[in-house]
Please model this.
Amino acid sequence: MTDTTATAPGHTALKPTPLHARHLASGARMVPYAGWDMPVEYSGINAEHLAVRSRAGVFDVSHMGEIEIAGKDALKTVQHLTSNDASRLATGQAQYSALLTPDGTFVDDILVYRMAPSHFMIVVNAANSAKAFDWISAQATTLGDAAVVDSSARYALIAVQGPAALDTVQPLTGADLGSVQPYWFTYGEVAQARALISRTGYTGEDGFEIFIPPNMAERVWQGLLQTGHAAGVVPCGLGARDTLRLEAAMRLYGQDIDDTTTPIEAGLAGIVGWDKPDFIGAAPLRAQKASGPGRRLVGLEMRDRGIARHGYAVLKDGTPVGTVTSGTQTPFLKKAIAMAYVPAPFAAPGTLVDVDVRGRVSAATVVPLPFYKRPRTV
Amino acid sequence: MAYPTDLKYTKDHEWVRLSGDTVEVGITDYAQQQLGDVVFVDLPAVGTGVTAGAAFGTIESVKAVSELFAPVTGEIVAVNERLAQAPEDVNSRPHDTWMVKIRVASGSTDGLLDNAQYEALLT
Model:
């Protein structure tokens, strides 16, 4: 039995997160990911996935990068560098956005936090951390008075996701988390660690992402698992994070989006600030918006047995027309789902296509995204 | 863990149970741990010839696809149909969940590992 898809361990030293020793002590299975030695699963992907959908899970996502931009011209700089309209952010608010190339393709997808009127924090993907910092730094020098700092080493990041997230975090902090709306954040202490607490996540559930000093990470992690223990809150790895985000159709850089795809093709036109005067990548995006994209990211549901996975060809009448970007057998919906780029004429829900699953033609149907939408409660 | 003494093993983490001229083939506890939750096992039809060391099927977990390698040369004489409905058996009872039975061509069980040799391989 040999793994044919997983990446072989590299020979360069992997970086440990501040919780590395905790993961090892807890018996997590570790894998290399974007240069980090990360937990891929604790109790199993299915069990962790279902825990997050029904209760809550705690994730170490300290590998994510943080870049801060501050100074008199910080807003102007962020507006030019990112796709979404950062001027619409109040202090204490966050937005999903992107760094784009001059061609309008993704350098990275990001969250932009407005910490103060002239102070922003950009959270970038681990794999893109250095690239994003270099890109921002290079651009920022021409945009006015703003300092760019890579503050990744100053934060551990723990995500608590699931319907029980609020009840798990609230006992550990004096901050009133119930009043923090989705995509807003507040400051407070969590288990005596000073923290930025953000109502965001990457699972399709309610939840929080907690930025804390690295030396407090273990204390906060243990505190969360203790307060959540009675409710069945469990530690989770990157495996469940991936299946959860895929059910929620949240895009993954390097698979669903990259520097060959645009926000419009990826179905993310909503993170483009069309009313902004100018930003990097604006002109090609406006042209593509006017002409319509040639291809679109769609959801697929397999009708035949088999799982469509990253890189598999999408076929129409036997001819390759597109490519699967992410796919799995989902633990919660219990079916094989995937996202794929297909030509625009085949992007309508209900369109019948096939996927080449390692030489076997397996039938699939284009379905609306997301696959999973959490039940909203008032 | 201690691996059963009545099984033989391969470097590719399959186990083999010898019984007359046929063998049952499954994957080891180590293999299922590495794979994680198994969701599909794709096996050849009865009557298919297999060659020791060559792929004869695939096993998919939530996160990855892996090939199954034949531990012996011979012919598939049975496949475990239950795995189509209950692939999770591979995780819960790896050494009791055979995938295929192979009628062995003469002499081709040479080179399989015993439990001590296999355990040494894992450390």
Remarks:
- The first helix of chain A runs from residue 20 to 25.
- DSSP finds eight helices and 20 strands in chain A.
- Chain A touches chain B at residues 1-6, 29, 40-41, 44-46, 239, 242-243, 305-307, 309, 328-329, 331, 358 (CB under 8 Å).
- The first strand of chain A starts at residue 2 and ends at 3.
